[in-house]
Automatic annotation (TrEMBL):
This is Porphobilinogen deaminase, chloroplastic. It is found in: Plastid, Chloroplast. It holds the Pfam family Porphobil_deam. Belongs to the HMBS family.
Length: 347
């Protein structure tokens, strides 16, 4: 998670994250990016957050000449609870909102002005006073299979251990390969790859988008199609938030928005919102523009052990209202199929 801050001599938009000194007045624009990393992590361990910050920075510089001056963009570190507590599943420490809580607070209190998020980490309900007017072009949504001993999930011997902190991945793995075992496996990309090489697990799955942004996609043993492993809601999408009353930031961000991605993310997040998805609810969804220019949607709801899996598909016009309605309708269908007892069992 990254937060960007911008100011000009005529319009004071700049404060400083908690780890910096107070704001400094400058004649030229300044953007500050706050990167969420693990407690005690070295600089290299924040590479994915930094990669997303740099991508946003470069696009802002290209689109707005006043942000292109050398030194006009600064990136600093902010630690979030979700990155600090790594030895427990997310569901046990409060869910994925822990990755955004500190950054949301900084945005609302004026410490920062732009927050760059991995959209799959963003809760469905944004804090009042914030808005996400921009999604950057979506990266590849597929998951990568990584192993030193097998080329695919199907090649792993019975009893093999797969490391994953994702219930979405866990349920789909166990549904198709019940003889495998999935264990909690948190940490950044570098940490997980290191644990794999040290033999803690036989395989792991990581989002290809993250591997590509880190330029380490060569670590992927193979790629899983969306039919083999439906991605997380908004996987591969970067969203940029600002305060809803900040017209200047809205102007900057609107110029970067990739509308196809924004609509797909909106569709998937509506599906998630209907199901009241949290880190105890394995949910997957993918909306995309098909070869005919329409929206194709796939959604999944499952029990963590993979014993119950509910799926649905939709197709319709690639427009905001139609896609939002599609996501909502698909969510209600699976909610009805699962029944209230299903959700009670996940608490």
């Amino acid at each position: 998670m990254v937060s960007l801050r911008c100011t000009t001599a005529h319009h004071s938009l700049l404060g400083s994250p908690t780890c910096l000194a107070g704001p400094r007045r400058r004649a030229r624009p300044v953007v500050r990016a706050a990167v969420a990393v693990e407690a005690g992590a070295q600089a290299k361990d924040s590479q994915l957050a930094l990669a997303q910050a740099y991508e946003t920075r470069d696009k802002l510089k290209t689109a707005h000449s006043e942000l292109a001056e050398e030194g006009a963009i600064e990136i600093v570190v902010i630690k979030t609870t979700g990155d600090i507590v790594l030895d427990k599943p997310l569901a046990d420490i409060g869910g994925k909102g822990l990755f955004t809580k500190e950054i949301d607070e900084a945005l609302l209190n004026g410490t920062i002005d732009i927050a760059v998020h991995s959209m799959k980490d963003v809760p469905t309900y944004l804090p009042e006073g914030t808005i996400v007017p921009c999604n950057l072009p979506r990266e590849d949504v597929r998951d990568a299979f990584i192993s030193l001993t097998a080329n695919s999930l199907g090649e792993l011997p019975a009893g093999s251990i797969i490391g994953s902190a994702s219930l979405r991945r866990q349920c789909q793995i166990l549904y198709k390969y019940p003889s495998l075992k999935v264990v909690n496996f948190r940490g950044n990309v570098q940490t997980r790859l290191k644990k794999l090489k040290e033999g803690e697990v036989h395989a792991t799955l990581l989002a290809l988008a993250g591997l590509k942004r880190l330029n380490v996609a060569e670590n992927a043993t193979s790629l899983l199609s969306v039919d083999e492993m439906l991605p997380a809601v908004a996987q591969g999408a970067i969203g940029i938030a600002c305060r809803s009353n900040d017209d200047k930031m809205m102007e900057y961000l609107s110029s970067l928005n990739h509308e196809d991605t924004r609509l797909a993310v909106a569709c998937e997040r509506e599906f998630l919102a209907v199901l009241d998805g949290n880190c105890r609810t394995p949910i997957a969804a993918y909306a995309y523009r098909d070869k005919d220019g329409n929206c194709s949607f796939q959604g999944l709801l499952a029990s963590p052990d993979g014993s119950k899996v509910y799926e649905t598909t939709r197709s319709g016009p690639y427009s905001f209202d139609d896609m939002v309605a599609m996501g909502i309708d698909a969510g209600h269908e699976l909610k009805a199929k699962a029944g209230p007892g299903f959700f009670d069992s996940l608490q």
